[in-house]
Specification:
The chain is about 20% helix and about 30% strand. With about 450 residues, it is α+β, with helices and mostly antiparallel strands. A 7-stranded mixed beta sheet has the order 2-1-5-6-15-14-12, with helices on one face. Strand 1, helix 2 and strand 2 form a beta-alpha-beta unit. The longest helix has 23 residues.
């Protein structure tokens, strides 16, 4: 009995500490463990949300993302490093394998240090391009902080981007929020539909390398400018793993969580970098935007049997699915955005039906969606399939396979119980009787008698 109580306490403690729906093991990679004090507020906020943080340097011998083929961490945060290469345990291939194993990665860059080649190659695999010299900084002569960057103009003061992807949930949007973006490394996104720029540079900004370029910048030598430059970008892989690239690591430092800034006009504002960093890290570490399927039911209308394996063509069926969404520390009912729809496909090789799933009921932690329809006049192996894949939310792909049979001989409209079937039944009966009579006559008819033989010739 004592061991049972201990087990219950351990399970309760695990549930209380795991605030992320995915896991709470976070690895922070930085040059020196002492550097974490520069990001103490940000890291304390993350730790307060239930994360178990481990600090390692790239040179550490104990640093391993995998052990015996399994992930040793759920999330990885890379802070700026002066090391050119991150070593054999953090190669681009290992980082890609980590994402393929559903690990989440957050990369913070800075123009004050050179980006390690491993991270450049890793981001390139994700179709995210950094400046060739790996030290370019974003400059804007119209949206800079006049208090701290009166000469270099490399501390941008921007409004948080709104309406990032119309019609979808706004986990990463903070309308009306001012952000300070110091010493940012701008990056360019490829054409992958998995990528989303969360914060773009203003139209007047450009990427500039003070080491390679003089005071007068040739437009032909620019890496990118204006809306081409992304300052914060996110990627959600096909397995729902998440990668976030923050072009300015200084955004996460204590200095810019508390500092004031002012635009060219001289108006002082207080950036809300702390709130923005909370949203970015919470989404990256799967504390928001995580969907869970609780149950799926399909049944014949009027029947109490759920999830049968066999239906008949033209049956009327009901289908329901229960979905919850993780919101920081609890599961809540999932709500489909107004401009979006959750759909059910009833398909063989291609869909025979594609129907909207409408909300039917809601509890404290789940919402039930459902629809009713008539099965097609086609027998075979079919699938009830829900394939809901949207940016910012983990993907839902659920499939239930059933067999659909044709009608039995006594289920057709011209059955013997209907008077209209008598002509067909009579024809069958007449054919059978005639065949039996013919056989009887043939079998019981005696062969003709032979004539008397002629006399032999004399």
């Amino acid at each position: 009995m004592q061991w049972l109580v201990s087990l219950f306490v351990l399970l309760f403690a695990a549930c209380a500490s795991a605030r992320s729906a995915f896991g709470n093991k976070l690895l922070v990679v930085l040059d020196d463990v002492a550097e974490k004090e520069v990001y103490s507020t940000f890291l304390e906020d993350v730790k307060a949300r239930g994360m178990d943080i481990t600090y390692e340097t790239p040179k550490s011998q104990d640093l391993k993302l995998f052990h015996l083929g399994e992930r040793t961490y759920d999330h990885v945060l890379f802070l700026p490093s002066k090391i050119k290469g991150l070593g054999p345990n953090l190669t681009p291939n290992i980082l890609i394998d980590f994402v393929n194993a559903k690990g989440n990665v957050m990369v913070a860059l800075s123009s004050t240090v050179t980006t390690p080649t491993s991270l450049v190659a890793f981001l390139s695999e994700l179709d995210i391009q950094l400046p060739a010299e790996r030290t370019g900084t974003v400059v804007d002569h119209f949206n800079y902080d006049t208090l701290s960057a009166s000469e270099k103009h490399d501390v941008l003061v921007l409004d948080a981007q709104s309406n990032v992807r119309p019609g979808l949930k706004d986990y990463l949007e903070m309308p009306g929020t001012i952000l300070a973006v110091p010493h940012a490394v701008g990056h360019v996104l490829g054409s992958s539909p998995l990528l989303t720029p969360v914060l773009r540079a203003p139209a007047t900004a450009y990427s500039y390398d003070p080491k390679e370029q003089g005071e007068v910048v040739d437009p032909d030598d620019l890496f990118a400018a204006g809306q081409q430059l992304a300052l914060v970008s996110v990627l959600q892989a096909r397995n729902s793993a998440r990668v976030t690239v923050v072009g300015s690591a200084e955004m996460l430092q204590d200095t810019w969580f508390q500092a004031q800034a002012s635009k060219v006009g001289g108006k002082k504002v207080r950036p809300n970098n702390r709130g923005y960093a909370r949203r970015l890290s919470g989404w990256t570490f799967q504390e928001t935007g995580v969907l869970r399927v609780n149950s799926i039911e399909h049944r014949l209308q009027g029947s109490n049997e759920t999830n049968p394996d066999l239906y008949r063509i033209k049956n009327d069926v009901d289908y329901t699915i229960s979905i919850s969404e993780y919101d920081w520390d609890k599961w809540v009912p999932f709500t489909v955005p107004a401009d979006d729809s959750l759909q059910l496909e009833f398909s063989m090789l291609s869909p025979f039906h594609r129907l909207d799933l409408l909300p039917l009921s809601k509890s404290d932690d789940a919402a039930v969606f459902g629809t009713s329809f008539t099965l097609p006049d086609q027998h075979g192996i079919f699938n009830f399939k829900v394939n809901y894949k949207r940016p910012f939310t983990t993907y839902v792909e659920e499939k239930r396979t059933v067999s659909v049979r044709h009608m039995a001989h006594d289920e057709w409209p011209r059955s013997y119980v209907i008077s209209g079937a008598w002509p067909w039944l009579s024809g069958i009966a007449a054919t059978v009787v005639g065949f039996v009579a013919f056989c009887a006559v043939w079998l019981y008819s005696a062969p003709p008698a032979k004539a008397a033989g002629k006399k032999a010739a004399r």
